[in-house]
Amino acid sequence: MKLSFRWYGESDPVSLRYISQIPNMHSVVSAVYDVKPGEVWPMESILKIREASEKHGLVFDVVESVPVPEEIKLGAEKATEYTENYCENIRRLGKAGVKCITYNFMPVFDWTRTDLAFEAPDGSTSLVMDVDELKGLDPLKEDISLPGWDQSYTKEEIRGLIEAYRTLGEEGLWKNLESFLKKIIPVAEEAGVRMAIHPDDPPYPIFGIPRIITDETNLDRMLAIADSPANSLCFCTGSLGSGLQNNVEEMVGKYAKRDRIAFMHIRQVKLSPDGSFAEKGHISSAGSMDMYRIVKALVDAGFDGYVRPDHGRMIFGETGKPGYGLYDRALGAAYLNGLFEAAEKEKRKEEGKGQ
Ligand code: CS2
Ligand code: MN
After folding, report:
1. pLDDT in tens, 66-103
2. Which member of 61, 200, 310, 328 is catalytic?
3. Domain 2-354, CATH 3.20.20.150 — does that match?
């Protein structure tokens, strides 16, 4: 595996210098943040990230994300032009040495939580979702805004988008995903890039808006649209693990064996029977997923893709972007290093090759 860490660019309070000090750190996961979704990224901005990473002995070979504009997801008039621009971004990133591009197909909202700084008894804070709090809300009736939402939309625009997606429905969204993949995957193949779709977070519809990258049946359906390693998953344990329907440990093994995981986001959640969940420290004992089993499944399948610790808690008094502080993600990285070392040694032993 290649250990990686998300970096939000020069304005990120977590510097590349700090990231490079984490043991075994290999790749920088970043993006061009000052270009609107749907537009082409200037080559100069892409190369700037590469140079900055190289200065610290790191490789810029993973992008998260090239956002898919709503027009593509909705199949609107501009979809053709924006898809062409998307293909151009894939070509440019491939030329700059990027091997993996993360994206998602979530309508309107990326991840959704009801609280970004829920305090645990130990004083750490993390992102949580309380399904009861969510149930009471209807963004078409009330003036609401949840943490994590794109603040650049006006309330009226959000209303319009929600209505459009409710009309489009699940099958309409599948159709638009299919057209998009049919266009971009051949381009990715040629550019030597693996496209890695991030699951919907949480993995169920919210406010009557369809969400389709949610469970095993739908992951199978998505991967079958283009049966190519360039059409792969960004397997986010936290996102899929927030769905009561998902057995994450088994799913990781299944897709890793088929070589359809390009990128692993590893994080822990504590899931309640009603579907509410809280993000936790990475270790298995803190939440609902067995991290050793997840890593073992990857190692046993010969996984050689990218791994990053996903969201962390805020600890040691750190302040910053919710989920993306340095300390808890660095602890997560150290823990993952340990799990991989153990699983790799175990595998060698099982194969009779000793330590
Ligand atoms: C998130 C997302 O869970 C995560 O990794 O922070 O913002 C994620 O980067 C996007 O959904 C990927 O497109
Ligand atoms: Mn993730």
Report:
1. 999 999 999 999 999 999 999 999 999 999 999 999 99
2. 310
3. yes
Distances (CA, A) of 138 to 105, 131, 143, 146, 159: 22, 13, 9, 11, 10
Closest CA to 310 of 4, 11, 1: 4
Residue 133 CA to ligand 2 center (angstroms) comes to: 23
Q: For the whole prediction, is pTM greater than 0.90?
A: yes
Q: Residues with Cβ < 8 Å from 345, sequence gap 6 or more? A: 355
What is the 157 CA–ligand 2 centroid distance (Å)?
26
Q: For the chain, what are the domain ranges?
A: 2-354
**Which structure tokens are listed for 23?**
């043991």
- Residue 308 is inside which H or E element, if any? strand 306-309
Catalytic residue check, 311: yes
Using a 6 Å CB cutoff, which residues line ligand 1?
A: 64-65, 102-104, 110-111, 198, 201, 236, 239, 265, 310
Structure-token pair, residue 223: 């991967």
Other CB atoms within 10 A of residue 227 CB: 10
DSSP 177-239: HHHHHHHHHHHHHHHT-EEEEEPPSSSS-BTTB---S-SHHHHHHHHHHS-STTEEEEEEHHH
pLDDT at 355 over 70: no
The 10s digit of each residue's pLDDT in 315-342 is 999 999 999 999 999 999 999 999 999 9
For residue 103, the ligand 1 atom closest to its alpha carbon is: 13
Ligand nearest to the CA of 201: 1
Report how far ligand 2's centroid is from the alpha carbon of 238 (Å). Answer: 7
